[in-house]
Design a protein that fits this description.
With about 300 residues, the protein is α+β, with helices and mostly antiparallel strands. It folds into 2 domains: about 5-50, Uridine Diphospho-n-acetylenolpyruvylglucosamine Reductase, domain 2 (2-Layer Sandwich); about 55-115 and about 155-305, Uridine Diphospho-n-acetylenolpyruvylglucosamine Reductase, domain 3 (2-Layer Sandwich). The protein contains 11 helices and 12 strands. The strands form 3 sheets. It has a 5-stranded antiparallel beta sheet. The chain has a 4-stranded antiparallel beta sheet with strand order 9-10-11-12, with helices on both faces. α10 runs antiparallel to α11. It starts with a strand and ends with a helix.
């Protein structure tokens, strides 16, 4: 049995989280959570619906900077004139998520905190019972690698790599107060505990400090709609000449490569990406193909900036 709550304030939501410590789940747009509940992957006693927190729905542009409430929908991001003008990278990333209908409900905060996925875990309970449970659930072994020490479920957020390359920060609130941290720091390279700094916390806002000089985005998936990413690559160069390239869908957390564009080479970029991406065969696309496409996408981006 689950209990449903819809608090009107962040303070009330945090109090409820404390009352049901380690046995609750925050509910935003619900587009990912509902699937997890249907597949019996989430069994928390309390559902805390955060959609009543009205201060988290705002889009605010200040010069070349941007502040987004965590409950702004992906559809609103794709259509907001200020985002299309200043941060088309974010608009394109948001437009690549799922389907138009889902984007009208899915939130930017929810996509940043989307659950990691694996073809051996994200299945019906009957399928998992037949094949055997993996270590992310109640088993002792990773069904992909056969190992017992690490889970390799993939981070599949498309907006995360875009915002990381834009050097975004997030505002999180706990009962101890409010804190602003770099977005890249909330992700951990662990397929089970893939978020950090988020215990009992609520992500309330995202801030992007400046418009990039150059940007690039590409997503690999079987179908051009609905499917989660098999590989997402986002890249941006800021006004100081710092290049940030972020890969997702091919490791437990987004992989950021950050270096002045003047010091960057394609060979070094590719080598760093292949070294840091812990890619295993847990996606519908073949492992070899996904690894090859890392090289292809990085080369495509490089061709757009090498002479600039």
């Amino acid at each position: 049995m689950s209990y449903y709550f819809k608090p009107a304030t962040i303070t009330e939501a945090l109090s409820l989280a404390s009352d049901y410590s380690n046995n609750y789940v925050y509910f935003g747009g619900g587009t990912d959570l509902q699937i997890y509940r249907k597949q019996k992957l989430i069994k928390d006693e309390a559902i805390i619906d955060l959609s009543g927190l009205t201060d988290t729905y705002r889009i605010q542009a200040d010069g070349n900077a941007l502040r987004l409430g965590a409950f702004v929908t992906l559809d609103d991001i794709t259509s907001a004139p200020e985002i299309q003008k200043l941060f088309p990278l974010l608009a394109e990333a948001a437009a690549s998520v799922a389907t138009p209908v889902i984007r009208k409900t899915a939130t930017i905060g929810g996509n940043l905190l989307v659950n990691n996925r694996c073809t051996f875990y994200n299945q019906s309970k009957e399928w998992r019972d037949a094949v055997g449970s993996c270590m992310r659930e109640v088993g002792a072994t990773c069904l992909v690698t056969g190992g017992k020490d690490k889970c390799f479920s993939r981070n599949v957020s498309d907006t995360a790599p875009a915002l990381i390359t834009l050097n975004a920060t997030v505002t999180v609130q706990t009962q101890k107060g409010e804190d602003e941290i770099p977005l890249k720091e909330i992700y951990a390279p662990d397929g089970i505990k893939y978020h950090q700094h988020m215990d009992d916390a609520i992500l309330t806002a995202i801030r992007v400090p400046e418009k990039p000089v150059n940007w690039w985005f590409k997503k690999l998936r079987l179908r051009k709609t609905l499917d989660f990413t098999s590989l997402t690559v986002a890249a941006a160069i800021d006004t100081a000449g710092m290049a940030r390239v972020c890969l997702n869908g091919v490791s437990m957390s987004p992989i950021l490569i950050e270096k002045p564009i003047a010091d960057l080479t394609l060979e070094g970029l590719t080598r760093s990406a292949r070294k840091n991406c812990k890619t295993v065969d847990n996606d519908l696309m073949p492992l070899k193909y996904r690894r090859e496409m890392i090289n292809v996408y990085l080369n495509e981006w490089w061709q757009t900036v090498k002479d600039k």
